[in-house]
Design goal:
about 450 residues, 2 domains, 8-stranded mixed beta sheet, globular
Length: about 450
């Protein structure tokens, strides 16, 4: 009954396309009158993506499959099968991308969030006219000043700005954030993709594991994880995010011992608060704007009050494309990471070139890490790890735990490198003259205007 209802609700998309479907089928069938599914959807690709309204992907494919078979039968065509699936290899990727850009889909059961935190489904908000004006203003400030120029003479910031200008909903591009895994990197030519070398500092890092500190952390991490299996060979059920962070991922907090930073749980980000409320002031014609809440991280790595890394944790796993994980992985965490850098640049009046920030995203028993660098221009370049699985039984520990510990160790070294850079520049004596690079404008994280209305004052 439910499947039939969904089909009826979505069947309207074929009302104005039946003639086009029939025409494409006849043209593809040719004189032999043979129809093939892959050829059909390849020709209909643009229309398929255009008509997609965010429904379940399998349901949407089934609707097109039924239209295909119904028309083949109606026109007495023969069917030919193919071992490949053009829908799975090409169409799905574009449908998922459209789904994300149109604010994604909502799971039937969302993971509970703190009332002080921003709901995961509210991160990708729609832009207003004043938001586009702010985007234009910031881009004008960095134009031809602090930018990354490719071998093809393209300016990365210009390309990102033009692309971001086309989006109706908030996207990492609005904050000049690029991920090396983005499909949109195809906007650059093959020659341009050499800018991936900007991230080589992450891939070529060599670490000295002979120090006692690192060995001790590794030993304790393994022993503490084994404690989960004292009474059973299977991991016990975890009921809260706090318990998940402490019992299963306790080695992440303890990695602060390696990076020589303090680790604090469930705290609002100072960097996020300053970034969100940067334009608040008391005016003569308008009331002061309502103060916006800072983003709350489940765990932050901090040195002398400056945040360098953060952890976002979700109790349940809804897959890599779940709404909560997708928003935290693509928007919340990268934006916080850029806020960390922006605050350091503002406070120290320094170049962001040597600053690297880290974000770790956890969904149940799966973990992903991100590193953001600012080697050239104003772009925050994000490098992402694989989505690693945590062992849930004693037999899985040898296979799954070492890669995760290796990942967290690398994250701690990135955090430590930024911490050491802060210590270095803190000792430089300033005589009032700023270096040329220190006078340049570094665009902060993009913040959509707060359109909430104030409560009316009592009469």
């Amino acid at each position: 009954m439910v499947t039939k209802l969904i089909y009826l609700l979505n069947s309207y998309i074929f009302i104005n396309t039946r003639i086009e479907i029939a025409s494409i089928l006849l043209a593809e069938a040719g004189p032999n009158r043979v129809a093939e599914w892959n050829n059909f959807i390849e020709k209909m690709e643009t229309l398929i993506v255009e008509k997609y309204n965010g429904t379940n992907l399998n349901t949407y494919k089934g609707m097109w499959k039924r239209q295909f078979k119904a028309n083949v039968k109606k026109m007495n065509l023969s069917l030919e099968t193919s071992p490949t699936d053009f829908w799975a290899t090409n169409i799905v990727k574009k449908l998922k991308k459209k789904k994300v850009l149109n604010n994604g889909s909502e799971e039937s059961s969302e993971t509970r969030t703190d009332s002080k935190s921003t709901s995961s489904i509210n991160y990708q908000r729609q832009l207003k006219e004043n938001d586009y004006a702010l985007l234009d203003e910031r881009h004008e400030k960095i134009k031809d000043k602090w930018t990354l120029k490719l071998k093809s003479d393209k300016i990365v910031e210009d390309v990102i700005y033009k692309q971001a200008r086309q989006y109706n909903y908030e996207h990492p591009y609005h904050s000049y954030i690029i991920s090396l895994s983005d499909d949109d990197l195809s906007m650059f030519s093959k020659e341009d993709t050499t800018f991936e070398k900007i991230d080589e500092n992450f891939k070529k890092m060599m670490f000295d594991r002979r120090k006692e500190k690192e060995e001790y952390w590794l030993q304790q991490s393994i022993l503490n994880y084994l404690n989960l299996f004292v009474t059973s060979d299977v991991m016990p059920k975890i009921y809260t995010e706090a318990d998940l962070l402490n019992a299963v991922y306790g080695f992440i907090k303890q990695s602060g011992f390696i990076s020589e930073t303090e680790t604090i749980t469930a705290i609002g980000s100072h960097s996020s608060s300053e970034n969100k409320n940067a334009y608040r002031d008391i005016g003569s014609e308008t009331k002061i704007e309502r103060q916006q809440n800072a983003e709350h991280a489940d765990l932050v790595f901090r040195h002398s009050g400056y945040e360098i890394g953060c952890v976002e944790i979700g109790l349940d796993d809804h897959g890599p494309h779940g709404t909560k994980e997708l928003n935290e992985k693509r928007l919340k965490t990268p934006k916080m990471m850029r806020c960390f850098c922006s605050r350091i640049v503002e406070q120290f009046k320094t170049s962001p070139n040597e600053i690297k920030t880290v974000g770790i995203i956890i969904s149940g028993n799966y973990i992903t890490a991100k590193a953001m660098s600012f080697s050239k221009g104003s772009i925050g370049l994000v490098s992402s790890s694989q989505r690693l699985k945590m062992p849930t039984s004693i037999n899985e520990i040898p296979r799954f735990l070492p890669p995760v510990l290796h990942l967290i160790y690398n994250c701690s070294q990135i955090i430590k490198s930024t911490k050491e850079h802060l210590e270095k520049i803190s000792g430089i004596v300033s005589l009032g003259q700023l270096a040329p690079c220190e006078k340049k404008y570094f665009p902060p994280t993009f913040v959509i205007s707060n359109n909430k209305k104030r409560k009316a004052p009592p009469q």
